[in-house]
Amino acid sequence: MAARLSVPVKPYLYIEELAALTPWTEDAIRTKVRRGELRHRVHYFQDHRGGRLIFKWDAIVELIEGGGANGTDERAPTPHHPPAGKVLDVEKAKAELQRMLD
User: Fold this and answer.
1) pLDDT tens across 77-99, in order?
2) What residue numbers bound the domain in which 38 lies?
3) b/e string for 35-52 if b means 16 or more Cβ within 10 A?
4) Is 97 a domain residue?
5) Separation of alpha carbons 65 and 85, rounded Å
6) Residue 23 covered by a domain
7) What is the CB neighbour count within 10 angstroms for residue 28?
8) Residue 52, Ramachandran bin (φ over 0: left; ψ between -120 and 50: alpha; else beta)
9) Residue 46's closest CA among 60, 33, 59?
10) What is the pLDDT of residues 8-64, one digit of tens each?
């Protein structure tokens, strides 16, 4: 059984602090925010309208460890993550995409 690293961490972190404690760079974190992988009022907050992002450490740990935040499944069906057990018909998807482009 792997030992868990015990690091005292503040409950809320700025982006540079989060980048120092996770495998993500500041740019990667910003990208995760833009893509919706890190959710507002779940994983992060803003200190005032349009201000600095403040990340909730417990929610980030849950996301990294695969449990999602607040017991939700972060890998819920999305265009990038089809529902479990569903097989994507690539040829059908390509044909549909081509139809839309024509």
Assistant:
1) 444 454 555 566 778 777 777 87
2) 12-76
3) eeebbeebbbeeeeeeee
4) no
5) 22
6) yes
7) 13
8) beta
9) 33
10) 679 999 999 999 999 999 999 999 999 999 999 999 999 777 789 999 999 999 999
Q: Identity (one letter) of the amino acid at 51?
A: G
> What phi and psi, each to the nearest 5 degrees, are found at residue 71?
75, 10
Instruction: Specify if 96 maps to a domain.
Output: no
- The two beta strands, 44-46 and 53-56, are antiparallel
Cβ-based neighbours of 75, under 8 Å, separated by 6 or more: 68, 81
3-class SS of residue 18: helix
Per residue in 63-78, pLDDT tens?
A: 999 865 554 444 444 4
Token couple for 27: 């740019």
CA distance 17 to 19: 5
Instruction: Please tell me the total count of domains within the chain.
Output: 1
